[in-house]
Amino acid sequence: MDEEKIEILDEELKQEEQKEEVKKEKKKKGKLDKELESLKSENALLNDKILRISAELQNTKRRAEEQVSYMAKYEGESLIKELLAVIDNFERAINMDDTNLEDEVSKFLSGFKMIYASFSTILTNYEVKEIDCLNKEFDPNTMEAVLTEKVDGVSTNTVIDVLQKGYTYRGKVIRHAMVKVAE
User: Fold this and answer.
1) Tens digit of pLDDT for each residue in 55-94?
2) Element (H, E) at 27
3) CA dist., res. 126 & res. 77, Å (int)
4) pLDDT number for residue 113
5) Helix (H, G, I), strand (E, B) or coil at 23
C-alpha cells in the first residue's frame, strides 16, 4: 500500500508541477502578449510619424517649387520699376508743346518720342501694362488717391486726373497709380 500511496503522491505531484508549468506558460504568454501589443502600438506611432514627415516634406517641396516659380515669373520686376521712372521723364518731355519751339528743339522732342515708343514696346513685350484709371471708379487695389476735388457732373469716387501712371507686371501691380478723385 505504501507503494500505491507513493504512486498517488507522485501522480499528484506531477499534476501540481504540470499546473505550475501551465500557470508559468500562461504568465509568460501574457507577458509576450503585452510586449506584442506594446510593439504594435509603437509600430503604429512610428508609421504615423513617417506619414507626417513625408507629408511635411512634400508640402515643403511644393512651397519651394511655388516660390521658385514666382521668382522666375517676376524676375525682372526691380529693373522694370527703375525703368518706369525713365518712362515718366520721357512722358513729361513729350508733353511739352512743340508747336512754338525752335526747329532744333522740335527735333530733340521727336527723338524723345521715338525713344519713348521703343521703351513702351519693350515694356509691353514683357507684359508690363499701364493701369487704365482715368474716368473710372477708384480702386484701392490699383490706385492711390492723392487728392480729392468736388466736381459738378462727376459721380463720387471717380478718377478725374492721373498724376502718375500705375503699372502691372504679369498681372501683379508693381506701381499704384496716383490719382485725383472726385468727392
Assistant:
1) 999 999 999 999 998 888 878 888 888 888 888 888 887 7
2) helix 2-73
3) 10
4) 85
5) helix
- Exposure class string for 15-35: b at 16+ Cβ within 10 A, else e: eeeeeeeeeeeeeeeeeeeee
Note whether 127 and 167 are within 8 A (CB). no
Q: Hey, which residues does 182 pair with through a beta bridge? A: 149
- CA–CA separation, 115 and 42 (whole Å): 72
C-alpha cell recorded at residue 64: 519651394
pTM of the model: 0.59
Q: How far apart, in whole angstroms, are the C-alpha atoms of residue 73 and residue 93?
A: 32
Residue 158: burial class (beta carbons within 10 Å; 0-12, 13-18, 19+): middle
Query: At 16, is the secondary structure helix, strand, or coil?
Result: helix
- Grid coordinates given for 129: 501694362
Give me 153's grid cell.
457732373
CA dist 102 and 16 (Å) reads: 129
Would you state the cell numbers that stand for residue 100, as one nine-digit string?
512754338
Q: Are strands 177-182 and 159-164 parallel, antiparallel or unpaired?
A: antiparallel
3 phi-psi bin (left φ>0, alpha ψ -120 to 50, beta other): alpha
Q: Which residue has the cell 513729361?
A: 92
- Max Cα separation, the chain? 151
